[in-house]
Structures are given as structure tokens and as C-alpha cells.
Amino acid sequence: MPELSSAQLSSAQLSSSNDLIRSSEFNSRLLNLAVFFLSLTWSKVKLKLLRNLRIHQQFQSEVIQILFTIITVTVKRRLRGVTG
Predict the structure, then answer these.
(1) pLDDT computed for residue 53 by the predictor
(2) Using alpha carbons only, how large is the chain's radius of gyration in Å?
(3) Looking at the predicted structure, is the pLDDT value of residue 34 above 60?
(4) Which of 6, 31, 71, 82 has its CA 20 to 30 A from that of 41?
(5) 68 Cβ neighbours under 8 A, 6+ residues apart
(6) Tell me, what DSSP letter sits at residue 1?
(7) DSSP of 12-70, one letter per residue?
(8) Any residues with CB less than 8 A from the CB of 9 and at least 6 apart, and which?
(9) CA–CA separation, 19 vs 27, rounded Å?
(10) What is the pTM of this model?
(11) Distance CA 81, CA 27 (A)
(12) What is the rounded distance in angstroms from the CA atom of residue 67 to the CA atom of residue 39?
């Protein structure tokens, strides 16, 4: 089995690093896309929730913020699990 020269080894390590960076950038873009999509549909979800929950008005914004945070964190975790 031929031994790799230091130049070949460095080239292989650099290629592997570049692949990792591209993969990381792809994951980040995918995550940003998912959050963007979530924010686009959030207004419709929010209206339905407000109609169905019928909560006192002073608590509506807090409940909406908590639900949005939970959904965003869940989406991020699932995407990281799928892609990473």
C-alpha cells in the first residue's frame, strides 16, 4: 500500500474540511429556510389559535410568543437531527 505524501495528505484534509464547511452551510441554509417558511405561515396559525383558545386579551401575546418559540425550537432540533 503506497504511503501518502504530506502534500497529498494535506490536500485530502483540506478537501474533507471544505466538505464539512459546505455541509454546515447547507444545514444552516436549510434551517433558515425552515424558519422563514414557519414565519410565513405563522400569521394564519396565530389567527386560528386566537379564535380557538379565546384567551383573555392580555395573555394572548405571551401565549403566542411561547407557542412560536416552542415550534421554532422543535423545527430546528428536528432539522439538525435529520441533516446533522
Answers:
(1) 66
(2) 22
(3) yes
(4) 82
(5) 42, 46
(6) -
(7) HHHHHHHHHHHHHHHHHHHHHHHHHHHHHHHHHHHHHHHHHH---HHHHHHHHHHHHHH
(8) none
(9) 12
(10) 0.35
(11) 10
(12) 12
